[in-house]
Design a protein that fits this description.
The protein is α/β, with parallel strands linked by helices. The protein has helices at 38-50, 64-70, 86-91, 110-115, 128-143, 167-178, 193-197, 207-212, 233-237, 256-265, 280-287, 303-323; strands at 8-12, 15-19, 27-32, 54-59, 76-79, 97-100, 119-122, 159-163, 182-186, 202-203, 216-219, 244-247, 270-273, 291-293. Strands 10-9-8-11-12-13-14 form a seven-stranded parallel β-sheet. Strand 11, helix 9 (233-237) and strand 12 form a beta-alpha-beta unit. Helix 5 (128-143) packs across helix 6. 41% of the residues are buried.
Length: 332
């Protein structure tokens, strides 16, 4: 936590107004191998300049050495899918906060950052609609034979199972219901059944039941030591005939060998993903139109999500130094 100049206060119209001195002249690096939209960059810069912070940019870099050089004298770092490793943290002697413009934060070494006293935040919810729309788009795409000639299927009347009912999962469920799908969900971290009931979604009691009933399984779990490689042969084999696994989360949660074995044994199973597996070429050759991976992760690749996440990152930086707000810190 940075040092904040003690505040003073006075009463105005029976309201207490607090004045804190911002850390003027701080240097903020926007490091994005996949750049923000220009409108997002302009908005981020405006927010930070209003706080009297210096803004520098590193975009479309292909060499890690460029990032290591750029972080040497910055106080704050805004990233997208860029990797903030122990090596990057070691190179950034002045770094106080890293904000990942997006929900997932497994591209940041959070433990090493914590050890060094660096706050790590994400911007949950800002990309959610973009990812949810893509998930439904992918379901329609594969149900219609990847838009090639031939008889396809419809989503209406099918069971949509959602693994993890967070910001994205909720939106996928609502959109699925709008298409006439029967929606069920599993999330062991949500104990209040009213969260599911409010959306007309059935809460199931186990991950095994979720997969056993899923015509379309929309995957939204993070990549953690507990979830990596957790979706594989057994769960895939338990899915109904003609079922489809849809992954807009992380490739690391898939046991690729196990999933490939299941798809080999069952010619009705399908897998469509926004995070290309290591064995993507092999899977495409083996399974044809039963498998599809986007060439590059596209979940948050909309102008709206780009702008929302970028502006949220800038505001969180200002709020952190102005008031000590750590609501979105992920390495407490």
């Amino acid at each position: 936590m940075p040092t904040i100049v003690p505040y003073t206060y006075e009463k105005r119209e029976e309201k207490v107004v607090y004045f804190t001195s911002l850390l003027k002249g701080m240097k903020v690096l926007i490091a994005t191998e996949k750049p923000f939209a220009q409108k997002a960059v302009d908005g981020i810069t405006e927010i930070l300049h209003e706080a009297e912070y210096e803004v520098v940019r590193l975009e479309k870099y292909t060499d890690k050495a460029a990032l290591l050089e750029a972080v040497k004298d910055v106080d704050t770092l805004i990233i997208r899918s860029d990797k903030v490793t122990a090596e990057v943290l070691e190179a950034s002697k002045n770094l106080k906060i890293v904000v990942r413009a997006g929900a997932g934060f497994d591209n940041v070494d959070c433990e090493e950052a914590k050890r060094r006293g660096v706050v790590v935040m994400n911007t949950p919810g800002q990309n959610s609609n973009a990812v949810a729309e893509l998930a439904l788009c992918m379901m329609i795409y594969i149900s219609r034979n990847c838009l090639t000639p031939g008889t396809g299927g419809e989503l209406q009347g099918k069971t949509l199972a959602i693994h993890a009912y967070g910001n994205v999962g909720k939106l996928v469920g609502r959109k699925g219901k709008a298409l006439g799908m029967n929606v069920i969900a599993y999330d062991p971290f949500i104990t209040d059944d009213a969260v599911f009931e409010a959306d007309g979604v059935e809460k199931v009691s186990s991950v095994e039941e979720l997969y056993r009933r899923a015509d379309y399984l929309s995957l939204h779990i993070p990549a953690t030591p507990q979830t990596k490689g957790s979706i594989g042969y057994d769960l895939a084999m338990s899915m109904p005939k003609g079922a489809t696994l849809v992954n807009t989360a992380r490739k690391e949660v898939i046991d690729e060998a196990g999933l490939m074995q299941a798809m080999t044994e069952r010619e009705d199973l399908r897998y469509i993903t926004d995070v290309a597996p290591e064995s993507a070429a092999e899977m495409a050759a083996a399974f044809g139109k039963r498998f599809f991976a986007t060439p590059k992760k596209m979940g948050a690749e909309t102008a709206e999500a780009n702008i929302n996440a970028g502006l949220a990152a800038a505001r969180q930086i200002v709020d952190y130094f102005k008031t000590g707000d750590t609501r979105f810190q992920v390495n407490k």
